[in-house]
# Entry
Amino acid sequence: MSKPIKVAVIYGSVRNGRLCDAVAGWVADRVEARADYTLDVIDPLAEGLTDLRGTDGATEKAIAARLSRADAFIVVTPEYNHSFPAALKHFIDGFNEPWHAKPVAFVSYGGLSGGSRAVEQLRQIFAELHATTIRQVVSFPNVWAHFDPQHRWRDMEREDRNLNVLLTQLRWWASALRDARAGADYRTVS
# Structure
């Protein structure tokens, strides 16, 4: 087997009582169970990065280094008011080069659309940051219906299959782009 892909799972919400903890936790558990990935979870709320202007600089540098080490990203995002959270945009905009020539996958959740509008808008932003977004998305329409009365996940067979497809595609892109970055410095072609 080739070298494992270093993937960073990024929380897209910083709200109190957020469902992002459950959704991103599910993603992280599934990634950790695979031998072809190593995992880094980046939660802007836990890292104190909800407002980059208020950081001490050392935290920002540490997160930039973690993003730079990643071969790929999975952004877990809710949809708020037909878009993605402002805190996620603020986080993404706080860094530039770490996103370059790397694949980004999405797991989204929300109401009827399951976060699809948020994902389509994020694709435009990551294109500007020289990142490649993969087509496969795992989405949770009416996310609250995926929990039982005790707030445990209901049957996740379909979502597990979709996530496995996403992870397989992400691995392909991450391997190809990692090899390409190793062969030529992307900064010289952009």
Q: What stands out?
A: Residues 157-183 form the longest helix (27 residues). DSSP finds five helices and five strands in the chain. The two ends are 31 Å apart (CA to CA).
